[in-house]
Prior knowledge:
Blueprint: H1 10-29, H2 47-56, H3 58-68, E1 74-78, E2 81-85, H4 91-95, E3 102-103, H5 104-111, H6 114-117, H7 121-124, H8 127-136, H9 140-158, E4 166-168, H10 170-186, H11 195-215, H12 223-229, H13 231-260, H14 271-278, H15 286-317, H16 322-336, H17 341-346, H18 348-360, E5 367-372, E6 376-377, E7 383-384, E8 389-392, H19 394-398, H20 414-418, H21 450-467, E9 468-472, E10 481-483, E11 486-488, E12 495-499
Parallel strand pairs: 2-8
Antiparallel strand pairs: 1-2, 3-5, 4-12, 5-8, 6-7, 9-12, 10-11
Helix pairs in contact: 2-3, 8-14, 9-10, 9-21, 10-11, 10-15, 11-13, 11-15, 13-15, 15-18, 15-21
Amino acid sequence: MFPIQVLPFLPAFLFLAIGGYIVSILSLRLWGPKAPLVGIRFLFEPRIIGNYRFFKNAASVINEGYAKYKTRPYKFVRNDADMVVIPNQFIDEVQALPNHIANPTSAHAHNLLWPYTDMGVILRSNLHFRVIQTKLTPNLGSLTEPMQEELDYALVQEFPECKDWVIIEPYHLILKLVARISARVFLGLPVCRDPQWLEASTQFTENVFITVCLLRLFPTWTHPLLSKLLPSRWRGYSYVQGAKKLLVPEILRRREAWSKDVTAAEQHGNLLSWMMECGTEAEIDPAHLAHLEIVISLASIHTSQMNAVHVIYDLAAHPEYIQALRDEIRQVWEEDCGLKKRSFVKLRMLDSFLKESQRFNPPSLLSFHRVMQQDHVLKSGMLLPRNSHICMAVNAIQNDPEITPDPKKFDGWRYYRLRQEPGESHKHQFAMTESTLLNFGHGKYACPGRFFASLEIKIILSRLIMNYDFELVDGKRPINLTAHEFIFPNPDGKLLMKERAAGDQLAF
């Protein structure tokens, strides 16, 4: 029985509940883009149920839509948006649209729930995008040696003694290596080795994804309140503030040094200094630059760490590939008297294995996101209304048998063989994008840091492959974790690792 005091309010509560339920149903069927709806089992199923289904098994929802509507748009429910999935036949048309019509940055910020994850900085400036394209990528050749030096230092600091077999958790070990190498490129010595930065750059990333995955379970109108109750939200905020506290004095110190010696800037070949050089007056505010640095670290560490961990898991699950990879690395090392930037381009077998591992373990089931800034009619006649969120089913596309033969088979040499065909030698590379391989996006707004990520991953993996043996603990590859469209390598996954005999290693 209800307390007497509650009874007068019951009609209002019931009215609000029934009204909310009706609005939920109508919003799915009547409003937003006109496209077939998938992921809803019956007409009167509430939106929140469809969203929870997507959280638990996004692949089944997306694959259902792809199977039914492969050549036409369809939509599914996410609590923060009605997602419109368009077929890749529209890729050239959509990627040619300017930002004021279809905006990828708005979509990226929306996916990461920017009001509650401190990601709104990317909406105020594209300085990081410009500098990665114009400074970081062209200078990868000069950055290769410092990255290898930092890996040397990181292995001494982070890797256990393993003359005999030891149990490791690759997720956490690789995270530490990636964080240190990325920091060396993004900040330079000595600040890149500051424990406060290393903690902030890794834990900010972890807490952002925890916040996103939890908030997406609930309707958007609850987010302002719920976000204030999430420890991950406040931890993320504290890491941003910690990054500012550390980097603002460093930025001011560099600025003062440059004012006394104009050549001093040339001695700082790292992302922070390049952003200080290239930014507008508003963009080079120290607090803004510090905030950008930790956001860039999120993208870099998230991409490189996950890919590298998946490859280590896959190598342990498919040990038949290891000897050929070792032979290739040793051959290139001997030809080039060490591994330089051009050397990693020659590692075609390793590149192929990376690409196949990513096909099996993409960072997300969706890619090529855009938020429509105004109404736009596709050539097919479909209207994409303002504020609609469009994307492509990257995993379903790249695992379509018409695109990838025998897609359920892990074939580490799949792309290596394709590059042997006439006219294909420069195609099918890990860092390249194609209309059917969209993990890094496609076109002019594709991930600008993918070439850095590719180099970083290869630097780490070539060292681990040559100097260590890996085996599965129980004969099974650690199972991936999924939440919404995201796919994560298992953070609790374990492998056996042992240092190889000195005569079998390479003297990097």
